[in-house]
Amino acid sequence: MNATTNSTSEAPFSPDFYQSIKNELFNDILPYWEAHARDTRSGKEGFFGAIDNENSPNSEKERSIVMTSRFLWTYSAVARLTHDARYLPMADFAYQTITQKYWDRENGGVYWSVLPDGTPKVSKKQIYGEAFCCYGLSEYAAATKNEEAMNLALDLFNLLETHARDLEAGGYVEARARDWSQTNDMILSPKDMNCPKSMNTNLHVMEAYTNLYRTLPVVFPDAKAIRAEVGDSLADLVRITVDKILQPNAHLGMFFDMNWNLLAEEISYGHDIEASWLLWEAACELEDEELKSEIRDTVIRVAQVALDEGFDHENGCMENFLLPPNRRDRTRVWWNQAESINGFYNAWEMTGENKYSQAVLQNWDWIQNHQIDREHGEWWNAVAPDGTPLQNEDKGGNWKTSYHNGRTCIELLRRSKTL
User: Fold this and answer.
1) CB-based burial label for 218 (10 Å; 0-12, 13-18, 19+)
2) Among 43, 98, 182, 313, fewest CB within 10 Å belongs to which?
3) Strands 321-323 and 267-268, bridge-based pairing
4) 325 preceded by cis ω (within 30°)?
5) Structural contact between residues 317 and 329, judged by C-beta atoms closer than 8 angstroms
6) Burial class of 386 by CB neighbour count within 10 A (0 to 12, 13 to 18, 19+)
């Protein structure tokens, strides 16, 4: 990461701050999921689709490829970061689950969800899920030097390029049918719109391609041609995000038609701040100075608007979303807080401005005081503005895993070189 600093950025983060990040990752997040996430019953091996706030699993709920891929990525990334094989059994478990229960051996790619016995529940190719699987597989391959895993990640890349990429208007569509043909069932979740393209899917394809581009030489150092293809697609998607998805108000549009006409006015503060650092990460991994120059001011502006409009400065936390003109959801959702830390830390690295480091410190205080469940472990899914946990939201499951908050800790430890 090529950060630009100045005199205002002198040591805003103490050794105690980084130690608290380290403690949270290794003493709370990682052991929590190792203890509670796995269903090891014969014939039902996989990760529970729901875990309540007293850590009791729902053993019959369907399981998603997103959840499984996020576990695969987290434990592979930690193993790579620490050079410690003790984290690989969790990654191995996730990898075996994907290859044995999610992989569509007839059509390629992975199912969106399966029942506990591995029977497909939703068999369509939701591109968001395919991207997360590519993300997890590439990290696992790098952690284990597993050529089979990297080849599967490349298979997913080729499938997305062949069946999901829009070569005319740019970007990637939401979904394809099980056989990769067109489908009208595009919707990602009940919270989303059934539309041809979305910010969320394209953001995470970008994230997956960034990781694939980064990790491919670890396993296949001579695969320069295919890596160049990944890089070209990644650079194109960075520009699509800036040119089509990002709106004039410096917020990301959420839902689009095929020609990138905006279909809703909703603003998601968590996605805004997450996109700011993922865009910069992509450009930095590509080592593309022209692209970095193109997007640098935009990246900082997105972070600044998220700080101005989405961050609760009084309490030190990121709010959820805004439905214009004035319906604001002030719920403190776990992933919004995690991505706020990442995004503002990245903005501080880029600018050296203390307003960003102060936002990081404020948000970390909120997380430690209100978002972490000190009795049962891990983070509350959602917390009310007054700090009261919302008990109707599960502690874990198909969307909430070790990924967002685990990645925040990994990112800060990696960037600070304090591990």
Assistant:
1) middle
2) 43
3) antiparallel
4) yes
5) no
6) exposed
CA distance 362 to 386: 16
Q: Where are the alpha helices (DSSP H) in 331-401?
A: 334-351, 354-366
Q: Answer whether 176's CB lies under 8 Å from 164's CB.
A: yes
Burial level of 80, CB count in 10 A (0-12/13-18/19+)?
A: buried
Contact partners, residue 408, CB within 8 Å, separation at least 6: 21, 338, 339, 341, 342
Confidence of residue 11 (pLDDT cuts 50, 70, 90): confident
Q: Give tens-digit pLDDT for 287-296.
A: 999 999 999 9
pLDDT(100) > 90: yes
Q: Residue 317: is its pLDDT beyond 70?
A: yes
d(CA 29, CA 27): 7
Local structure of 169: helix, strand or coil:
coil
Contact in structure between 409 and 25 (CB atoms under 8 Å): yes
Percent of the chain having pLDDT more than 70? 98
Report helix, strand or coil for 3. coil
CA distance 71 to 366: 25
How far, in Å, CA of 214 to CA of 217, rounded? 7
